[in-house]
Predict the structure.
Amino acid sequence: MKRRTFIATTAIATASFISGCKREEKNYSSININKKKKIEIKLCTSWPANFPIMGEGVERFAKRVNEASNGEIEIKVFPKNILIPALLVFDACSSGQIDAFHSGPYYWKGKNAAFSLFGGFPFGFTANEMGAWMMFGGGLDIWREIYKKYDLYPMLGGNTDVQMGGWFRKEIKTLSDLKGLKMRIPGLGGEVMAKLGVNPILLPAGEIYTALERGTIDATEWVGPALDIKMGFFKVAKYYYSGFHEPGSVLELTFNKKVWDNLGNEHKKLIESCANELNSTMVFEFQAQNAKALKELKSRGVILKKWPKEIVDAAKNALFEVIKEQSKKSDDFKKVWDIIEPFWLENREWSNLGLKKYLQMRG
């Protein structure tokens, strides 16, 4: 082959090779983008469809995750009873039937007594104190350690802040007025009230009003003015008591552990960031909406009451009886309480000096 012909042929071949590489590179990149797998997560709640603040908050969380991931993660939210009954979401997620759920940890105290402490306890943490314990006092670590036994991974999914003590058909004047009273109340609050003579009953949201109206129960606690007014309790029970049983109740956003572990670090961090937003936003929304709803409840003739000192003192004594009994029965309960108690006492001193004194001065 002549030198001139060889050079020309080589140049054409080289150009064709480079051009082919460029086309392959472009196609390869396109294939990568098109093959990016969409992650779908089935999340069930213990709340009815379109339930204010809590249910709506989870819907916002799902939307935020979808937007922040540019559509890579789609969380499909199923209200109670669509896929799973309200109080079976824990089991369904633990067994892998669903990927995640939103509910309250005190609902599962029958499975492990320690779970009631993660939800909050009578005369216990405020929302701020609970968040501090969870994030800076070891609470989140011990919660995840115990939930791991059930193949679950929990995150903070909101807080109701201080809850009201409940709706009663009749005024409670003395400790004896509580004897034999049938009251819907979950968690450690229910156990404390049982010590005072109350018969605590656990009912999901959709069944409470009918039970109260028909006299199946004599009283119920729920959350606070914003949600209670929508439940209509004021129509069948006029006495509305301030509370001590749930001063800062945690809501959980919990994933199946295998599902969580299979997510990439980028996706985990994104979901945790959106969960933190859900957690803080819910506290703020409860504050704003409770203030508005309280004004309306007063205009409807609701009688606001506080517990008599006799009942408050008896409830405090009952709390420590319950703590002592549960600590003997459950190693997990004792382990969690031993972490809670010193943090609770330390923070109570600061809250009494800071927040309490300020509220007293504000009047």
Observations:
- The mean pLDDT is 91.
- DSSP finds 13 helices and eleven strands in the chain.
